[in-house]
Amino acid sequence: MNNILFFLTPKAMCAFLNDEYTVRQALEKMESAGFSALPILNKRGEYRGTLTEGDLLWALKNMCYMDMRQAEARRIMEITHRKDNVPVRVNTDMYDLVQRASSQNFVPVVDDKNAFIGIVTRSAIIKYCSQQLYPED
What we know:
By secondary structure, this protein is α/β, with parallel strands linked by helices. It has one domain (4-133): CBS-domain (Roll). The protein contains five helices and seven strands, in the order E-E-H-E-E-H-H-E-H-E-E-H. It has helices at residues 23-33, 53-62, 68-73, 94-101, 122-133; strands spanning 8-10, 17-18, 37-41, 47-52, 88-89, 106-110, 116-121. The strands form two sheets. Strands 1-7-6-5 form a four-stranded mixed beta sheet. Strand 5, helix 4 and strand 6 form a beta-alpha-beta unit. The protein starts with 7 loop residues before the first strand and ends with a helix.
């Protein structure tokens, strides 16, 4: 397997945040999506970073003073991100993809114009490896 597109969850099937969202909008989107981290995209569809539940928690404490009215006034790009998931290009080789996935729960995938095209989840890679190692399961 040499093509990361085999593992790709396309953008149309991904939950993501718009970089203009407020803290409150991000909280609501993350809650409804059921994920603990989501990619952030700008209006042009370019990957801007990753927002985690922990980032939101610290933002509520430090920026919004635990006040939801304040959370409506602050934008998510004001939040310090503990760690952004580093994207890969669509032509990245499998070794580099697996290396990246070993330290990230998902790997954002961008095209040559830096447009977000989807994610590769760590679980998709593990599932594939499991099927190769234990085909009868």
